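Thread amino acids onto this structure.
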């Protein structure tokens, strides 16, 4: 006899574990299956959390080295990389164990192992000792996330040619690192190792970094990263990577057909991620996939089988932990007969470099493409008293509002704490606010948030401090 559940979630990442908890809160007998051996998925184990830990620690290391410029004299600063890695691992362990506690608190049954479909209502679970368990489920939610993509003919070995996972676990600082791809993850990890002493070269096929971002922010971002010592090679295509015992050579060709080779200690390939559906046995039950091998869903996150749903990185949309979380809550509430909903127009994106970069809503390029008439409000952190007081005044806030109605259509920030500041604009957009609504809201002084208020004032050409 197999165990019977009203709802089973396959995948214990941000989308999956949040979905399982919400289902349990709504009264469903719920189970969650996770093959990693710890909950939290890519995000908590080998993504968002460990990378933010290293970004913070490497920034602290950099700041301490430069404190004498601010009148704080200290002795020689040394890097203890193994200790730094242990600090990162401690943060990961605390958070993953925290999710296990939440499962116990909410009475979610946790299966450690890989799940695959035996039928549309049955899942076979294999644990690390190959022991098999069969469970029955009325409703099944697929939340198995995504995995890094390599390049044709260039597999990851996680030593010389690494994915983001390998880049979080290097046991020494490379003298020279080549990052293939100028997107969020590559620039974050490149920043970490650059601050710790590596010479970092970013190779990007396009003529700009961070594809899809507001172009003005993208240009400013690259300018700042260059000042920090990161080297950029745009419009270069990687042809091949040659490996020896302890080094690699990245062979590239630029848009004019000129060859350029980069010798390095480590190559980080960061060209995207793909839906993780391998091993689920989807073909047996006839789940439909799109041309990118993502699971096709209709309204309410339903697949073509009426009792099976999918959320997060395995379906279309931005591959972001918070997008998956919102979808996890929405699908649970839909299954319970409520009105779960995700507003895809107000999902923020953040790059956790120094300074941070954040965006929400439409870019200028998208508005022009749709022939939407808009106004722009901009305010530089150079004119923000808090930013100037602590010498973190690079970047600016940019707000885009409808020319007629003044409704906020998008916002793009580069500067200190941009990832936190974007939340205010997210709330404003969720309520359909105008730029004037933000401008007339009292902001504490001195704070970074005043730059948001001033940018909103600037939409109507009435900024006070610029």
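Threaded sequence (466 positions):
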């Amino acid at each position: 006899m197999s165990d019977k559940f009203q709802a089973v979630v396959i995948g214990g990442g941000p989308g999956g574990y949040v979905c399982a908890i919400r289902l349990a809160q709504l009264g469903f007998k719920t189970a969650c299956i996770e093959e990693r051996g710890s909950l939290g998925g890519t995000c908590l184990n080998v993504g968002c959390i460990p990378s933010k830990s290293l970004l913070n620690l490497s920034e602290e290391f950099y700041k301490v080295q430069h404190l004498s410029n601010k009148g704080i004299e200290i002795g020689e600063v040394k890097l203890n990389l193994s200790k730094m890695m242990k600090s990162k691992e401690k943060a990961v362990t605390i958070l993953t164990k925290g999710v296990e506690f939440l499962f116990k608190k909410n009475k979610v049954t946790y299966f450690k192992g890989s799940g695959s479909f035996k039928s549309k209502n049955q899942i076979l679970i294999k644990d690390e000792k190959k022991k098999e368990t069969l469970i029955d489920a009325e409703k099944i939610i697929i939340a198995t996330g995504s995995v890094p993509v390599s390049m044709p003919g260039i597999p990851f070995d996680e030593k010389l040619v690494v994915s983001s996972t390998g880049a979080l676990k290097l046991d020494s600082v490379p003298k020279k690192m080549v990052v293939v791809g100028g997107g969020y993850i590559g620039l974050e990890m490149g920043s970490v190792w650059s601050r710790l002493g590596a010479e970092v070269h970013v190779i990007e096929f396009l003529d700009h970094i961070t594809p899809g971002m507001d172009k003005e922010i993208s240009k400013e971002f690259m300018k700042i990263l260059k000042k920090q010592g990161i080297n950029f090679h745009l419009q270069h295509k990687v042809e091949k990577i040659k490996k020896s015992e302890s080094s690699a050579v990245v062979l590239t060709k630029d848009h004019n057909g000129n060859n350029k080779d980069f010798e390095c200690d480590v190559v980080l390939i960061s060209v995207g991620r793909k839906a993780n559906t391998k091993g689920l046995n989807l073909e047996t039950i006839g789940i439909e996939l799109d041309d990118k091998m993502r699971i096709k869903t209709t309204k309410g996150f339903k697949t073509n089988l009426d009792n099976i749903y999918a959320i997060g990185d395995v379906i279309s949309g931005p591959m972001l932990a918070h997008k998956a979380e919102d979808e996890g809550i929405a699908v649970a509430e839909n299954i319970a007969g409520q009105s779960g909903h995700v507003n895809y127009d107000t999902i923020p994106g953040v790059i956790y470099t120094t300074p941070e970069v954040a965006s929400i809503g439409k870019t200028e390029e998208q508005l022009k493409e749709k022939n939407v008439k808009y106004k722009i409000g901009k305010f530089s952190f150079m004119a923000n008293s808090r930013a100037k007081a602590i010498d973190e005044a690079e970047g600016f806030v940019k707000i885009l509002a409808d020319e007629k109605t003044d409704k906020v259509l998008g916002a793009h920030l580069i500067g200190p704490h941009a990832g936190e500041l974007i939340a205010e604009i997210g709330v404003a957009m969720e309520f359909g606010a105008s730029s004037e609504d933000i401008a007339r809201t009292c902001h504490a002084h001195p704070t970074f948030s005043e730059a948001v208020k001033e940018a909103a004032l600037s939409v109507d050409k009435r900024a006070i401090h610029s």
